[in-house]
Design goal:
Elements: E1 6-14, H1 18-26, H2 31-34, E2 38-45, E3 55-61, E4 67-78, E5 82-89, E6 91-102, E7 105-116, H3 119-155
Antiparallel strand pairs: 1-7, 2-3, 3-4, 4-5, 5-6, 6-7
Length: 156
């Protein structure tokens, strides 16, 4: 794999069955309803019967004063275990969700290996890398909290 500017890892521990977490992550079109940082998801291509090749355009509100948009293409999927996507647009690279079960909870790990495509971000990346990492962490924490609330509400 090509070395990317940013190698970011997030891990969520969700008190919900793995299949419910999996279903929520696979339904990207529903993310704006529970992930506060996701402004919009547009389906550009549905993919095959297994979801491979599906393309969604994500528009994200970040914790910093800018929004990001990029297309994510599902490149690989192992049901109930792993989703791999290739990002193109304002961020370019690879994102991988890996799910596992332990002690009645589900762990969802996200590995995000990306380059900034916006010229100003590329120029400032060496200086602002800690700020970009903080921003990513903030966006991911919002997602974790939102998914917990969403799954709790769906259960009740």
């Amino acid at each position: 794999m090509k070395q990317r500017q940013f190698q970011l890892v997030s891990e969520w521990r969700i008190d919900a069955p793995l299949d419910r977490v999996w279903d929520a992550l696979c339904a990207a079109e529903d993310w704006p309803g529970w992930w506060p940082s996701v402004r919009r998801v547009e389906t550009l291509a549905p993919g095959d019967e297994n979801g491979i090749g599906a393309v969604n355009r994500f528009t994200w509100a970040t914790a910093l004063p800018y929004d990001l948009s990029f297309d994510m293409t599902v490149a690989a999927m192992e049901p109930m275990r792993r989703i791999e996507g290739c990002a193109t647009g304002e961020l370019e690279g690879l994102g991988v969700w890996t799910l596992s079960r332990s002690d009645g909870s589900t762990t969802a790990r996200y590995d995000w290996h990306v380059d900034a495509a916006k010229p100003w971000m590329r120029r400032l990346a060496p200086l602002l890398a800690p700020v970009f990492a903080w921003n990513h962490d903030k966006v991911m924490r919002r997602g974790e909290e939102g998914l917990r609330r969403y799954l709790c509400a769906k259960q009740g």
